[in-house]
């Protein structure tokens, strides 16, 4: 691959019945996007044509079936056309097996292209888990699809937005099970992942804050023993390895400090412990319009052999087709993926 060129990013269209196509169109309507990377959409050309018309943006679609045919020119959107949607039966804002299958095929193709070093990174628009499973693809979401098709065993979800960077010990499991997954080795693994990721973002000596599981980080065992038995031993071992870590910190203190820049990264013990503070910081609801005004923040899957960055919001079936979806998170995702791809390319020189 020619390392003198801008990184090629594969952007999957997500569930076509959701806002994925719209936020991609809006992101590619900015010339600055093409200054960062060479984007190509993986999905269905007819869907992207449909989205262009709904957005009322003057852009053209270049349907291709080989990345070599992409022109990477502002004003024209290259679409790797999988021809996976029947427009006669397509409906926006609906759970549909056809759309779940289309989203899956786009992700699978993007992974194949990245694994073959044909593209330098991937960015995913949101898919609908119900539609995905209705189509017979029984995955919890993007992360599990990527892990499966890259044969990755150790991986984790990283949420990132300005000062807030959060990784999770567990994600899509019942809360009762999440407590059982708080184990020393898993804490060590995800801390090392976020530490290395921060270095990729240009932070030479990251400081990582590690949350407790129980209220007040158990108050020395008054409210649980996970801190004493699993979290503290993990922190001690990480320090012996040379990592700058602090904890266990009560979550209500950890994230309040992190949003102001105290920590370069945070380790959350379970899904909602990390997602709630992250979205409180990055999501803004407009009471007057009754709409989400902006939804910033990205989701990066760490531990993969390829780059995968995603928006950290859903398909938003309730607003699709109204031309009001914010592209903020998609543009931030493209920015993160571009930086990570450039770092990887530079390391290969």
Automatic annotation (TrEMBL):
<dbReference type="Pfam" id="PF04166">
    <property type="entry name" value="PdxA"/>
</dbReference>
<dbReference type="GO" id="GO:0046872">
    <property type="term" value="F:metal ion binding"/>
</dbReference>
<dbReference type="InterPro" id="IPR005255">
    <property type="entry name" value="PdxA_fam"/>
</dbReference>
<keyword id="KW-0560">Oxidoreductase</keyword>
<dbReference type="GO" id="GO:0051287">
    <property type="term" value="F:NAD binding"/>
</dbReference>
<keyword id="KW-0479">Metal-binding</keyword>
<protein>
    <submittedName>
        <fullName>4-hydroxythreonine-4-phosphate dehydrogenase</fullName>
    </submittedName>
</protein>
<keyword id="KW-0520">NAD</keyword>
<dbReference type="GO" id="GO:0016491">
    <property type="term" value="F:oxidoreductase activity"/>
</dbReference>
